[in-house]
Amino acid sequence: MKIYIVRHGQILSNLIERHTINDEDLTLVGISQAKDLSKKIGKLDFDIVISSPFIRAIHTANIINTKNKKLIIDDRIRERSSGDLSGKPHSLVNRDEYWNYFTTIQYGTSENIKDFFERVNDFINELKTKDYDTVLIVTHSGVSKAFSAYFEGIKDGLFLNRGLKNCEVKEYTL
Description:
By secondary structure, the protein is an alpha/beta fold. It has a single domain, classed as Phosphoglycerate mutase-like (Rossmann fold, 3-Layer(aba) Sandwich). 33% of the residues lie in helices and 14% in strands. It contains six helices and five strands; from the N terminus they run E-H-H-E-H-E-H-H-E-H-E. Helix 2 (28-40) packs parallel to helix 3 (55-64) and helix 5 packs across helix 6. The model has no long low-confidence stretch (mean pLDDT 97).
């Protein structure tokens, strides 16, 4: 099974470097990024589109799903919850440590990185049981980091720079 994982288009929190708020929609730049991506991946033939439940991912999925394939929403591929950091500047935390798989630091009520990766792994493991040839997944930078861990290994545990950029796509084989 081929998996194409896509990060949603730009949102305001990406632009101003703040921890995201769950239901932020795309900026005009984000919409443009998604339209550009739809042209780049237009020739891909996928069986299904699976999206995070957050509006930025669904909006991106609707733009790039030019063949109107069935869209499934799956809560397990929502972004890592930043808890009480939501809406606050990235500078309040050590971002390298926040995305360190081996950290012992808990930042407020943010979701534990190991629990987060386990949630995404559950999604991937269930996907293995499906009879799809090609799947398009629209999600978030953090989820793309968890995909990286699953397919490429934990390595040094540092994931800050292992996530996709807005409307970037990566292919995996499951």
